Every structure is written in C-alpha cells, then in structure tokens.
C-alpha cells in the first residue's frame, strides 16, 4: 500500500552557517545523547511549513522530511493538495508524501504513527535529522502524546509558524486563485466520480467536494451560464473552507501549545505575508530570513547541540 520514497544519500561537508553576527560550525554528533532528536514543524495551512522544513533541512544536513499532512500522504491531486514540487524539494528526501496509492484507503493516525516511526528510525540510523512537517495536528498528537515507542525514543522541538488569521485568510484566497490558474479544475475533473464518497481518503481534500455540483452540471451538458455560476460557487466555497480549516488548525495548535509549551516555539511570519501581498518578493524573502529562518536556526542550534 505504501510506496516508500527512497532516501537519497545527502551526507555533506559540515556546513558553515552565517548566523547573525557570528559563524557557528554545525556539527552532527547527535548519537551520544540519550534520546534522538526530532524537529516538528507545525502551523495552519498555507503558513510556510514546507518552506521552513526544506530551508532547515538544507542547513542541518543530512536531514529528511516526514510529511504529516493527512491528505498529502495520498498519491495524486498534487495541485489541489498543494504538494511540494520536486524542484522545491531541492534534493531533500521526503517520506509519506504521495505514498498511499489507494485513494479510498483510510490512512489513520495509527498508520501515520507506524510509518512515521519507521521513517524516523531509518533517518536516525543514518545520523540524519528527522523533520516532521504538516498541518494534521491529530497525527502529531497521536505520535507525540500517545505513541509509547516514540515518546521513549525521541525528544522533540516544535516550531510553530504562525500568521495573523486575517492576513493568512487573504493569502489563502490568493493561493486558491493560483491553484485554479495552475490547472486545479482539470485535475479535479479527472478524479471526478459521480458516486464518490467525499468522506473517505483523498476525496476529503478541500477543493474536491466543492466542485461536485459544477462537474455534475458539466457532465449533464447544462448551459454555459449555469456551469460558470457553479464554477464560481465552487471556487468561493473552496476559499471559505480553507479559511475555516486554518481557524480550526490554529485552535488545535493552541491546545497542543498548553501541553508542549516548554518545547514549542512560536515564529511570527505575518510580516513575510504582508510584504508578499504588497508585491515585493525580495522584501518578503528578507523578512522570512530574519523573522522565521534565523530564529529557527538559533532555536534548533540550542536544541541539537546544547
Ligand atoms: P481533523 O480531525 O479535523 O481531520 P486533523 O488534525 O486530523 O483534523 P487536518 O490537517 O486539520 O487534520 O485536516 C482536516 C481536513 O482538512 C482534511 O480532512 C481535509 O478535508 C482538509 N485538508 C487537510 N490537508 C489538506 C490538503 N493538503 N489539501 C486539501 N485539504 C486538506
């Protein structure tokens, strides 16, 4: 059922990281510690978890990413589910991404714990740093709070990428428009099955059930005006549902924060998004480096080496 993504060897020279005012030599001697270390990147949909995971993996090589998004574990619907592209991965191996072939399979929190543990074990055996990243807080809760083997073997540092909700909502709406431009409608049309059960597997993805009435109208040969009206409705519902998802995810993170407070670090990326929305991508990238990446590097340096 699961197709393991073969990890590529990524041992490199020890990197020198230009880190605020000084140079810090990143070393990789983690194995002498009692517990192995795992980094967990949390945040609502669309906050930049994937980018942070890849940026950090490049700094702390060898590092590999374990996906914890319950919809991205399935194969397919890459645009709709906003999967990272091969180019964006920059050669960093990813686990549990597009790994489940059966679109109807119910990939449970237990499945996640089982597969995430074996991926993490394989990364640690190679002296690599496992970075878990994804928005499914129920998976993280099951793994970190309830999975005995994980609790026994690993110590976690949680990085929470936070964006003020009104700012995130407008970014999610712009992202939904970009997905449409990138071909989401064709992608969902190919998956369309009039007898689909939208409560199972990958078809739960936001951006799939919302298009049902539009695709039915198309299949039934209804008139262009009706089809266009239904398409606009589908896009509007997708935007609303993404914003609602973000709100729910933030509420769950606040609950987990009460439990993991001591090892959880909140990184405010709002400024990154504000600058991006004003059209200055260089300025936005600078804000990312300053407000999110540099702080994360400092936190992880303390976590890994002190
Ligand atoms: P819940 O218990 O509500 O399912 P969770 O913490 O297990 O929450 P979430 O990641 O918050 O998992 O996902 C909740 C719902 O959000 C999914 O069932 C799906 O409808 C939608 N969703 C999550 N990730 C994606 C994605 N990558 N693309 C599209 N929709 C998604």
UniProtKB/TrEMBL annotation:
It catalyses: dimethylallyl diphosphate + ADP = N(6)-(dimethylallyl)adenosine 5'-diphosphate + diphosphate; dimethylallyl diphosphate + ATP = N(6)-(dimethylallyl)adenosine 5'-triphosphate + diphosphate. GO terms for molecular function: AMP dimethylallyltransferase activity; ATP binding; ATP/ADP dimethylallyltransferase activity; tRNA dimethylallyltransferase activity. It is an enzyme of class 2 (transferase). Keywords: ATP-binding, Cytokinin biosynthesis, Nucleotide-binding, Transferase, Transit peptide. Its EC number is 2.5.1.112. GO terms for biological process: cytokinin biosynthetic process; tRNA modification. Belongs to the IPP transferase family. Involved in cytokinin biosynthesis. Catalyzes the transfer of an isopentenyl group from dimethylallyl diphosphate (DMAPP) to ATP and ADP. This is adenylate dimethylallyltransferase (ADP/ATP-dependent). The gene is IPT4.
């Amino acid at each position: 059922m699961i197709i393991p993504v073969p990890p590529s060897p990524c041992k490199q020279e020890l990197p020198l990281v230009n880190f605020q005012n000084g140079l810090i030599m990143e070393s990789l001697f983690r194995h002498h510690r009692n517990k192995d270390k795992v980094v967990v990147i949390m945040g609502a949909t669309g906050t930049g978890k994937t980018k942070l995971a890849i940026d950090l993996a490049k700094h702390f090589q060898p590092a590999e990413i374990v996906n914890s998004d319950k919809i991205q574990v399935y194969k397919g619907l890459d645009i709709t589910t906003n999967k990272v592209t091969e180019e964006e991965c920059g050669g960093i191996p990813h686990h549990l991404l597009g790994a489940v072939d059966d679109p109807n399979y119910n990939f449970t929190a237990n499945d996640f714990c089982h597969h995430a543990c074996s991926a993490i074990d394989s990364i640690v055996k190679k002296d690599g740093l496992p970075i878990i990243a994804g928005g499914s807080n129920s998976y993280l809760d099951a793994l970190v709070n309830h999975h005995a083997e994980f609790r026994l073997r690993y110590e976690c540092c949680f990085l929470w990428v936070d964006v003020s909700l009104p700012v995130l909502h407008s970014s999610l709406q712009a992202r939904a428009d970009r997905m449409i431009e990138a071909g989401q409608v064709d992608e969902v049309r190919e998956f369309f099955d009039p007898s689909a059960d939208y409560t199972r597997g990958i078809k739960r993805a936001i951006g799939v059930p919302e298009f049902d009435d539009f695709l039915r109208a198309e299949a039934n040969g209804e008139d262009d005006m009706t089809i266009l009206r239904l398409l606009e409705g589908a896009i509007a519902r997708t935007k609303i549902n993404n914003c609602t998802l973000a709100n729910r995810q933030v509420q769950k993170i606040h609950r987990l924060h009460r439990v993991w407070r001591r090892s959880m670090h909140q990184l405010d990326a709002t400024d990154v998004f504000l600058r991006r929305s004003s059209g200055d991508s260089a300025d936005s990238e600078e804000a990312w480096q300053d407000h999110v990446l540099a702080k994360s590097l400092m936190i992880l340096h303390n976590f890994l080496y002190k």
